[in-house]
Amino acid sequence: MDKELRIIISGGGTGGHIFPAISIANAIKAKRPDAKILFVGALGRMEMQRVPAAGYEIKGLPICGFDRKHLLKNFSVILKIWKSQRMAKRIIKDFKPMAAVGVGGYASGPTLNVCADKGVPCLIQEQNSYAGVTNKLLAKKASVICVAYEGMERFFPSDKIVITGNPVRQNVLNATVSKEEARKQWGLDPDKKTVLLIGGSLGARTINDSVINHLQEIADSDVQFIWQTGKYYLEEMKERVEKLGKPGNLIITDFIADMGATYKAADLVISRAGASSISEFCLIGKPVILVPSPNVAEDHQTKNAMALVNKDAAVYVKDTEAADVLIHQALTIVKDDNKLQNLSDNILKLGYKDSADIIADKVIKLATQSKWK
């Protein structure tokens, strides 16, 4: 066995950063069970719970983003960045990584900057079709840049780019349950068409309001709905639904642990256009209506969505129009078997298989060639 590998993986903030990071870690461990993997995240963010739940150690930095609306508050942000940089130096000195992986998010900035300055080879993984600020800043110091979309040369040096796709959650790919059995697990009729609404790990106000505005249309349909509100919105949505009258064909939940089985239950998915979710839809060939979030940097979710829409691989509904048209459009599409099949066939062509394994091989290669051991 080669010398023990020590890998740092940094970033997070949302499931779109965290799930790929954990998938990469799992792939590294599968190839090199001796590998020591340390995550570095941002205190108070989702990764501080999700990473330990996946079985990995994580260190937290007190870092956050700049407040563009209240500029005076940024003095404290600068102090946090300075403190995070010092903490990152201490973490790296103690852990002695042989390679570092950045998946985007606040924490990856100071962590990979320190690693690169100390000669630790760095790999960054950009999930979106429009590169994030942190990854753009780190690009010059990275040895390898793994991307999921073509045309990323406009953000990164072309000689460093490798198209790998985005790593996805293993339970999505490994689900073996049948469509009928998956519906039974949710207490649904196994033979009825089913729509799944997901707002990402944090929930989505627009998608939630779309359901509230069309409860009667849902109730009058012969279609079943699984509605993931997000933890933040759950109680509010439950109260609003109870006041208006809850349809019997609507299931409400804040979080879905087994997405693989739940995707199996659905004929059609309604979702934000986060890169990780899109990668999952591509790999399993799932028909989807995408409602890009307007609350993201550089409107990158719309760019993600249009990469599919332009190939007739997804349907696009603008956020400002969703509350009025989304449910009606979903009911129309889910009853059109030809449309569903066409969307499934086209989106399946866009998936990159074995992304986590390919990235893991790149990381292991960087680590074994590392001079900083």
Description of the molecule:
- With 373 residues, the chain is of the alpha/beta class.
- Helix content is 45%, strand content 15%.
- The protein contains 16 helices and 13 strands.
- A 7-stranded parallel sheet has the order 3-2-1-4-5-6-7, with helices on both faces. A 6-stranded parallel sheet has the order 10-9-8-11-12-13, sandwiched between helices.
- Strand 5, helix 5 and strand 6 form a beta-alpha-beta unit.
- Helix 1 crosses helix 16, helix 7 crosses helix 11 and helix 8 crosses helix 14.
- The longest helix is centred in the first third of the chain and has 22 residues.
- The radius of gyration is 21 Å and the shape is globular.
- The relative contact order is 0.14.
- The mean pLDDT is 91.
Entry keywords:
373 residues; alpha/beta; six-stranded parallel β-sheet; 16 helices; 13 strands; 15% strand
Helical stretch count? 16
Task: Give the number of DSSP strands.
Answer: 13
Termini, distance in Å?
A: 16 Å
Largest sheet, in brief, is: 7 strands, parallel
**What structural class do you assign from the helix and strand content?**
alpha/beta
Order of helices and strands: EHEHEHEHEHEEHHEHHEHEHEHEHEHHH
Mean pLDDT: 91
Quick rundown:
The chain is of the alpha/beta class.
List the helices and strands and how they pair.
Layout: E1 6-10, H1 15-31, E2 36-42, H2 47-53, E3 57-61, H3 74-95, E4 99-102, H4 108-117, E5 122-126, H5 133-138, E6 144-147, E7 161-163, H6 170-173, H7 179-185, E8 194-198, H8 205-213, H9 215-220, E9 224-228, H10 234-244, E10 250-253, H11 259-265, E11 268-271, H12 275-284, E12 288-290, H13 300-309, E13 315-316, H14 319-334, H15 337-348, H16 355-369
Parallel strand pairs: 1-2, 1-4, 2-3, 4-5, 5-6, 6-7, 8-9, 8-11, 9-10, 11-12, 12-13
Helix pairs in contact: 1-16, 3-4, 7-11, 8-14
